[in-house]
Design brief:
This protein has about 400 residues and is mainly α. Helix content is about 70%, strand content about 0%. The chain has 19 helices and three strands. The protein has a three-stranded antiparallel β-sheet, with no helix packed on it. Helix 9 (about 165-180) packs antiparallel against helix 10 (about 185-200). The structure holds zinc ion. Zinc ion (ZN) binds near residues 364, 380, 381 and 383. Zinc ion (ZN) binds near residues 380, 381 and 386.
Length: about 400
């Protein structure tokens, strides 16, 4: 507490100095133009009163004093902006809001000062979760054409939190034209969010049209393909579902394991398991995780070819070690085992089960967040498309 007081105290002690130097700079900049000055650049009585409140741990009274000072002193605007900013950084957002509201309401500010104060106030509202107010101020800034990039960035952020995807798309497009940075991958997700909403309403026509829009924006959008596959399969259009899921392999190989079991279900309904088996062999050839190999083995085991299934997995394990593969191998081996071998295999199976239990299946490539379910937007760093299935010995 003492250190903080010293910090704030020093800040306030420096205020009059900052004001004076502002006055001096102002004088230098307008040399020759005589100006009516009522204020002397000295340390006023009011500043000491404010400082006294601060030192007595009454910051709210101190703020009142300093705000009242601002009314008679136009050149402390920068300092008050800095002070509001400081309060916000310290988490004292209510105080920051009072300082910035006072500045915004002040008629004497020039255009830049006013825009700066509006921006700071909008950041305060954002920080305290008052999204509506933050949104209207950032919108005001984009209309004014002031701090436009920053305002648009914040608007994209706000519309995502509010799940207002139409506005998020619109703001992203404006931000793209303002900065020249390609945001297509993110915008495609906004369309996918709208697909999910349409699907929940049972409006499949609209959902399908929005999938096409997402893919139009970002042809590499895996989520759009998976959504298209899910919607088609749920409506009995399994051939379209297969085409949509298979597209993922050419979009982002990391997500291929996500498509294997839905593809299996569609091929079963279509009676095209042989075709699917060839597809899986091609994926296994391209090393797209352990899931294609496990499903190949499942199909063999289903036909009663347990020895073939076991051999298929053993072959794969020789090439690439995998805990999930070992676990499955133990399953198959247990089925024909007896006596001491059975007991030993049970120990092995227990071990692999424990290894697989509670392990994360997905990891964010940006921040390292891990989890057991797939998030298209990372819950940790809020990045889109960064959470992917984990590959390697303990994963795919
Ligand atoms: Zn992340």
């Amino acid at each position: 507490v003492f250190l903080e007081l010293v910090q704030i105290g020093l800040f306030w002690l420096l205020l009059p100095v900052a004001a004076a130097s502002g006055w001096y700079a102002g004088r230098m900049g307008r040399r020759g133009a005589p100006k009516d000055r009522r204020r002397a650049p000295g340390v006023s009585h009011e500043y000491f009163r404010g400082l006294n409140y601060l030192l007595n741990e009454q910051p709210d009274k101190a703020i009142e004093v300093f705000i009242s000072l601002l009314d008679v002193d136009n050149e402390t605007v920068e300092t008050h902006l800095a002070l509001g900013n400081l309060f916000r950084r310290r988490g004292e957002v209510d105080r920051a809001i009072r300082i910035h509201q006072n500045l915004v309401a002040r008629p004497g500010l020039d255009r830049n000062q006013h825009a700066l104060a509006v921006q700071e106030l909008a950041m305060d509202y954002l920080r305290s979760g008052l999204l509506d107010r933050a949104e209207s101020l950032f919108s005001e800034l984009t209309t004014l054409g002031a701090h436009k990039r920053q305002a648009l960035r914040q608007l994209v952020h706000i519309y995502q939190q509010e799940q207002d995807w139409d506005k998020a798309i619109e703001a992203s497009r404006l931000l793209e034209s303002e900065t020249g940075v390609d945001l297509s991958a993110m915008v495609a997700h906004f369309y996918c969010e709208r697909v999910e909403l349409a699907r929940r309403r049972g409006d499949f026509e609209r959902a399908q049209a929005l999938v096409a829009e997402a893919l139009g924006v970002d042809p590499k959008c895996v989520r759009a393909s998976i959504l298209e596959g899910e919607i088609a399969a749920s409506r009995g259009a399994d051939e379209s579902a297969v085409a949509a899921y298979q597209r993922v392999a050419s979009q982002d190989e990391a997500y291929v394991p996500e498509t294997i079991y839905p593809l299996l279900a569609s091929h079963r309904r279509l009676g095209t398991l042989e075709e699917f088996r060839r597809y899986l062999e091609a994926l296994a050839e391209r090393h797209m995780g352990i899931t294609p190999v496990l499903v190949l083995a499942e199909l063999l085991a289903e036909r009663g070819e347990l020895r073939h299934a076991t051999r298929r997995i053993a072959e794969e394990l020789r090439r690439r070690p995998s805990v999930r593969g070992l676990d499955r191998l133990a399953d198959y081996a247990l089925q024909g085992a007896a006596g001491e071998t059975l007991e030993n295999l049970k120990i092995l199976k227990e071990f692999t089960s424990k290894l697989l239990e509670n392990r994360a299946v997905y990891r964010c490539r940006m921040c390292g967040f891990t989890g057991k379910s797939l998030h298209w937007q990372c819950p940790g760093c809020k990045e889109w498309n960064s959470v992917k299935p984990i590959h390697g010995i303990e994963g795919e």
